[in-house]
Design brief:
heterodimer, A: Alpha-Beta Plaits, 4-stranded mixed sheet, two-stranded antiparallel ribbon, 9 helices, B: mainly alpha
């Protein structure tokens, strides 16, 4: 009788083992979601983060184009070729540009400021409002971008954008990168190096290049992380949105402007 | 009687043609020699499934990539290209949509016109500096046996 009780019930053990395993498998994904914010490449982006930038125009050097060059290289924009027979002036107007170096001058004082102008990744983007197909959209993590699969090339978004941040691809694109598909008939703009975001990398091509050139004018980070470098910089120094009167709550902010 | 024999012969000939011609067409291998795919026995899914449904799986995947940022699917166009691209005479990769290459040959055979490659690169391009994970586009591919057990499947 006693022996009967002491005997290990193998079937019961394996049942409990299997049940514990099943519970772990069911609960574990939830736990991982809370401990590691959005595992790179495998989980959908969430609105727990909002990517943004602080650009210190005082550090943006006159004549430097490191950010523009890095952006071109990262996204294959340097592979563009001038169409046969197009004039230089026309090509200058029409070639795709994701970052432009802009100079603004205060007419009263004559003070000149350099700044890179790119998609401002608005919280309420006008380009998304006007898009008739839903191709222009805002990701959960705040990146405003174009789904080229649904873009019909109507260019409403280009007209709606107050920052002239978008480009239209007029010609067949012979050479493109695997990481940045781009082709004729679609609108495109800065996507905050979305392939890097999904890979869990910490910076953008332009911010890296600016730091490598020794200027450190571009600070990229998460606007929603209170302990992040970007939030701390925004809390400590005065910054502005370009065309703040439009009330778009841009993700890209400028200081010393 | 003679008519019946002729009819019978015609039927047999027709049947022989049907049986002979169809497998030859269906079994024709469009995989480019020298590509990584040429050394594998099947694609990321069983071959029959891929022949009929490759467009469906990458069409679904494109939305999850662009809108949700999920890039770990084994169904990726970049993966198709990395595996099916073959080296040319100069050892440089030849576009998968060039004459006689994998995608082009089969689409020409089935009279299908796609515009994937209006935007997507037709050869694997080297990753830009700083993009670590872009380098292993082909490495995420896992060969599965036909009728393989899926990851979520029950185990004995």
């Amino acid at each position: 009788m006693t022996q009967e009780h002491d005997k290990v019930d193998g079937g019961r053990r394996s049942f409990i083992g299997a049940a514990a395993g099943l519970t772990a498998a069911t609960v574990a994904p939830g736990l991982i979601l809370h401990t590691v914010e959005a595992a790179p490449r495998s989980e959908a982006v969430t609105d727990k983060v909002r990517w943004g930038m602080l650009i210190d125009t005082a550090k943006c050097a006159d004549g430097c184009s490191a950010c523009v060059d890095a952006c071109d290289k990262e996204n294959g924009l340097d592979l563009q070729v001038k169409p046969h027979g197009a004039s230089e002036a026309m090509w200058d107007r029409q070639r795709a540009v994701w970052i432009r170096k802009v100079q603004v001058q205060d007419n009263l004082t004559g003070r000149v400021t350099n700044l890179p102008m790119l998609c401002q990744h608005c919280e309420r983007p006008p380009c998304v409002d006007v898009c008739p197909t839903g191709a222009s959209f805002k990701r959960a993590d705040g990146i405003v971008m174009v789904d080229r699969h649904t873009c019909i090339g109507c260019r409403y978004c280009m007209m709606a954008c107050p920052y002239k941040a978008r480009s239209f691809i007029h010609q067949v694109v012979e050479e493109k990168l695997t990481a940045t598909p781009r082709g004729k008939g679609c609108v495109e703009s800065c996507n905050l190096c979305v392939q890097r975001r999904d890979n869990g990398e910490t910076s953008t091509a332009c911010a890296d290049a600016c730091a490598a050139a020794g200027h450190h004018a571009i600070l990229f980070g998460d606007l929603k992380d209170p302990n992040g470098a970007l939030s701390k910089a925004l809390a400590s120094a005065a910054s502005r949105q370009v065309r703040e009167d439009l009330n778009l709550n841009t993700g890209v902010r400028y200081s010393s402007l | 009687m003679a008519n019946a024999v002729v009819r019978g012969l015609l039927a047999v000939a027709g049947l022989a043609w049907a049986l002979g011609a169809q497998p030859a067409a269906a079994g024709e291998n469009f995989v480019a020699p020298g590509s990584k795919a040429a050394g594998l026995t099947s694609c990321v899914e069983p071959t029959d499934f891929m022949r009929r449904n490759h467009m469906e799986v990458i069409k679904h995947q494109r939305h999850t990539v662009v809108h949700k940022g999920i890039r770990d699917s084994k169904h990726t166009l970049a993966g198709c290209i990395a595996c099916h691209v073959a080296p040319g005479p100069d050892q440089k990769p030849v576009s998968v949509y060039a004459e006689g290459q994998f995608c082009q040959r089969c689409h020409a055979y089935t009279a299908v016109d796609v515009n994937c490659f209006g935007c997507h690169a037709t050869v694997p391009t080297p990753p830009a500096a700083g993009t670590a994970a872009a380098g292993d586009l082909g490495a995420g591919l896992v060969q599965v046996p036909d009728h393989g057990v899926t990851a979520g499947g029950e185990r004995p």
